[in-house]
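Hello Y.,

Per our agreement to keep a running log of every chain we model this quarter, I'm adding this entry. I've kept the format consistent with earlier entries: sequence first, then predicted structure.
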Amino acid sequence: MERHVDQALRAAGDPAGATAWRQALAELGGELRVAVLSAQGGTGARLARTLADRGAQTVVLQVDPEADALPLGAEDRLFGAHALVWATPLTAPLGAAERLFLPRIAALAPARRVVVLADVHLLDQLSDDPAREASEVLDRLEGLVPEGWSLLEPDSLQSWVDELRRDLPDLVGARSAEVAGILLRDALERIEEACTRERSAIEEIEGLLAQEDAALDRIRREGERTASHLLASMRRRTEELLLDLRAFLDGLHDDVRPQVEAIDELETVRRTLPHWVHHVVEGFLIDRLGQWRAEVLTDLRIARVDPADAERASLLVPALHAAPLSSSGGWRQRLGVTAAVGGGAAMLFLGLWIPGVVALAGGLTWSALGRQARRSATREHLIDAACTAVRRMGEDADRLMRDQLLHMEAELAALGTERAQDHASAREEERKRIEERLAFHRAGHADQVAVRDDLLGRMAVIDPGTGGE
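Predicted structure for the entry above:
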């Protein structure tokens, strides 16, 4: 058993326990050793001398019954004792603190353990009838001795020591098994505590990962909610804008003829008509887009969209290119000029969809009207060109704005996922550290479980009495 216990303790990562085990074996294999414990050093020392006179080796330990633990090294010294004596003083036999203390050390004490009333010789100086006084004290002690302890009368010390000597071979085997059980169970308890700590760390870290996942899910849902509110508001407000734009263009269409006929000079009409149409449409769009933007932001506030998310709508600032287009090139060239001057194409490229579309539609239509006006030979031709341009404005605006709404819908559909991905990217390093900690503690827990299972197996093989049953 000796070698198996040593190997088990080493395999359990308890070299200190293995050292204590070897020391205990060496001491238990020698002469009879009796540990003498007391709360008062003088009391224990005097009783130890008495035991030594009767042929027993002694280990004297002074302990504090009210302390939470034994003095440093006391446990190891107890392991090498075949028997234990608790020396209680005559002046205060087995006080409350002592009675509470004795059951606490029973797990570490040898099976042969007794309580002895020390310093009985003092009764010769304190009492007229020392024998009667001693008998009365012993009678009281009989009812105070805790379970698992025996009361030994001072006169019986010699016979008790003689009995221990006769039983020494059995005491060695029994005490060795007791010490092995104590050390192995202590090692097992530490391993179990380590397993519990690792399991707690794993649960804590898994909780952190769950929080990370919950945060991603929350950000995703919030992004989807924001996208839904944005799209719903912009759809509704854009439909209203288009209705207002159609009504405005219908009125402008009807107003073209009176405006043209009110000017006598045809050349003046030819030069000013495109600018007038552009100015009127531009003024309406600037005002109406400003209203559109304000209505969208109001909708978002009512829906309690986060102000930071509402900034996405703030990008949709009403803006038209600063001056009419005058290029005579093809459509691609005019688009390039528009982008170059910061007009509709540039805004579309930057994601300022709605105003950009309207600006681009108005700019291209105005360019077409300018060319037709320069070629128109009669007032009727000018009126027809202006009316055609106005109708084109409505058609282009309706088509292009709806196309851009579809594009926006596709963009916003991924907003929740994009927000979650952005958050995940920002937290990538932290999440990586969390996952590394989790892997570390999982590996540690697996190692501790393997050590525990190995120790339990060794304990079962060594001896059921060691606690491995």
